[in-house]
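pasting for ref. prot 1 ->
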Amino acid sequence: MSAITSRQDMQDLISARKLGELFREHLGWDNPRQEPLPFDSGSSATPHPVASKKAVDVWRVPCPTVPAAGEQHKIIRRIRKLYSLETLIVFDGDDGNMLWLWPEQRPAGDSYKAVAYPCERDAVSDEMLDRLTGVRFSLDEEDDLAVSDVLSRVRRSLDVDIADLDREVENTVLDIAVPLSGDADCSTRIGEVLSQEGGEQSNRMAAAIMFNAVVFQHHIASHHPGMVRSLEEVRSAGADRALVAAEWDAILKINYWPIFGIARKLLNAIYDDDVAAAVLAELYGNASDKVAHRATQGLVGELFGRLIVDRKFLATYYTRPQSASFLAEMAVDRLDVDWTDPEAVTSLRVADLACGTGALLTAAYRRIAARHEDAGGDPAELHQKVMEEVLTGCDIERARIDRRPIASQGGHFRSCSLRSRAARATAPPRMGRVARLSAGPLNVTV
């Protein structure tokens, strides 16, 4: 194994399309342990294994141009189904464009999020070259190297190690809850907003909801410049109660009521100026920037969804994401649907009549999206209609419903108006074709 002494060495190998030499001879990876993927007449590209390290594989996909998202995901799923879940896939276009893609398995186990880095083959950024340097292995460490070591190094290098994000979110939420718990009257009012008894559990939940709103504000500001301030702009302006209230009101005029409606009520429940100042200082502190910049919108929803259902964190019981994934797969698998037809997909009516924080609806959304994508469709094009017309959630407690979108984002932020049907249970919603998901007997009614 020879040593690469400069970024230019790496750039030259990438420009020459010598990824095997780059990984095996210069980054310390091993020969590929996989065979080439079988030819697929329905695909425009055939992946070739480049290198392996323990249970992690690198694949190169030569192609005329980087394929659209639907084709990318078809190739990813073939690789994951036939060979390996832990894989770096490099789409290498003849037109000079490349896409370095890592499918990170979601904790619920029902899908993955694609972490992608596009670049021009002859002008790879220094940042991307440094990421590749981060996955270099030496002979000296080979004997003690474990699979977890390889995965951890790759994830850190590609900035997809969400374990530290989990810790960052939980620690920040706990810090936000401290001043709330120090004000008994405030705790009581927060409990009233959440339709439950005030106390530590309610304060932690309130802190999670408000922090979730702040992180979403970062993404909303990037799509609505001039209408919504960034976190840095709010922080620079003092992040006082009136300013934050005005920003959240501006966001509510766009929409996003399920997230910011209840966050706004919680902010109103903090009467004491000192408590409000302490909470807002934590909300708009460095941790929110770190989480916001590292996490996609979909991952933000997942992080907070997991926190909300953490039984140790809140000392309460909601459906675990893993259980929801299993139940949703069973229900969606029974549907007789032409997944290639967008109208057939959006004619579905999926309801959870005791939705709580929406774990089952989230899982059902992902299973439906995955099947449509596997059939060659683009879930992003159907996202808004699915959110508004396909999914229905009811719960006896309104506060739980308002938290539901924390866990139910599909990651297609630009197209999402967040007007999906969620209501306090007074009468069953009107439904056409329904895949009814519940913690008890599971059935599909057509």
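and prot 2 ->
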Amino acid sequence: MKIYLPGIKFIMILFLFLLVSINCQASNLFVPNFDDNTVSVINVDDKTVIKTIDVGINPNGVAWNSNATTVYVTNRGSHDVSVIDAKSMQVIMTIPVGNGPLGVISAPDDAYIYVGNVIDGTVNIINTATYDVEDTINVGLFPIGLALSENGRYLFTANVAEASVSMIDLKKKKVVDTLAVGRQPHGVAVYKSTLLVTNAEDETLSIINLDDRSSETVPVQKWPVGVAFHPTGDTAYVANRDSGTVSVIHLPSKQVKHIPVGQGSVGLTLSPEADWLYTANMFDSTVSVVNLHALMSVKTVSVGQSPIGLGFMQGGHQAIRGVVDQLQPRSVFCENKTTRKRVKIKLKKDDYPRAYWNCAKHGLIVNRGDKLEIYIKGRAGS
């Protein structure tokens, strides 16, 4: 039985206790600029651009591995993915993929990245050890947004041209369900059994229960694109491109507030502790910095031309998460010894033999220098 924490490997039996000190480097935002063929790197502490990296043609999507050492950027115009070393901030590899790559996301264990190709209507599965495309899966027409279930088993693609979301079983490597949503779906996000989908033409957010496939919609503003959950799962954030706003939706009550940001807000991301939200504003070539406690934009950072995606990388650890391999999972206890906050994560039997866990998604905030205790309980497998 093996336990993987980003950057650390353990081999133990039956019961595991870890004490981890989180000492992170500076946190950065990586912002692909579609019309500049560059990526702007913003230091989130002083909120300034510290580096501009040349990548492929029409960069769009961005993802990163869990220990914040590698950044992946899709280049729609050159049909490839730029692999960036996060420390040196240089491109170290270019991976040819399908036609028109946009969305990209990293597997929970970092072994694979998944790339959606809008022209081909496919998803490429790329092995990060070799950077080879191992498999290609046909999905719906013009897949843009990608999201992974928390256990890494299912991948969801928002298919703009057919008002649907494809649900891919990554063990079987095939589409196992197609979910009907609104017109021109763009963004997708998953928290436990809830799937969020932005419907650009309808100006709505679909909220889908993945257990019974029931759904409802909430009105937002003009041309919603990016979407994200708060780490606790009770709030959704939607970037409305043509309104220049972010909609904040309290999911239990369906109450909505709107925050003015830059013009053409499309991509958005939260800091791991969910104090800050950042939007990529393609029409005025800026990034808005939103204070989520005050629910207002407090700063605007100029970047390259037409920023679309963006990704937050907390130096050293993007989130406290890991993989349990060859263990019949039961539960994970994460406690921040510095703040004395604790969460319990119940793992499912069908996660065996590989169970993924993420403390941040269950509401645990871990800051630089904090000490984290992790207890993992379960039975050893063969």
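Residues 1-24 have pLDDT under 50 and may be disordered.
The CA atoms of residues 175 and 217 lie 24 Å apart.
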